[in-house]
Specification:
mainly alpha, 5 helices, single chain, about 130 residues, about 90% helix
């Protein structure tokens, strides 16, 4: 039983690590990417970048309760895996976006599937012992 719990905790932490690394990697390159796609200066790119981050955060805020309900109904692991797939699609959008609009589509998709922190916390609570 302890080995199953350790494997589950490892899965959770690897999932969260991938989320955090992926989010942290895109932030430094986003202004240059926006400059290239939108043909704007650095100041305008920073403003658009802030809008992209806000779109992600607002979407994540709105969809976290829904993702939480889905994890209650279908299980934590499938929802975490779906979140990873959603983030993977987001990173493909960011890498190959032909226009600024596609960057927003990718960030909104990431916000929808980005409720993995809430699901991971619930998963840890589910597998933890009373000790």
């Amino acid at each position: 039983m302890a080995s199953n719990r350790n494997a589950a905790i490892g899965f959770i932490f690897i999932t969260l690590l991938i989320d955090v690394i992926g989010f942290g990697i895109i932030i430094p390159v986003m202004p240059g990417l926006i400059e290239e796609l939108a043909h704007v200066n650095v100041s305008q790119a920073a403003t658009i970048g802030g809008s992209l981050i806000a779109a992600f955060a607002a979407t994540q805020f709105c969809f976290s309760p829904l993702v939480g309900n889905l994890s209650d109904r279908y299980g934590r692991r499938p929802v975490l895996l779906a979140s990873l797939i959603g983030f993977s699609i987001d990173y493909l959008f960011l890498a190959f976006a032909p226009t600024l609009g596609w960057l927003f589509v990718g960030r909104v998709l990431a916000g929808i599937t980005g409720a993995s922190f809430t699901t991971a916390t619930a998963y840890i609570a589910d597998i933890s012992t009373d000790e």
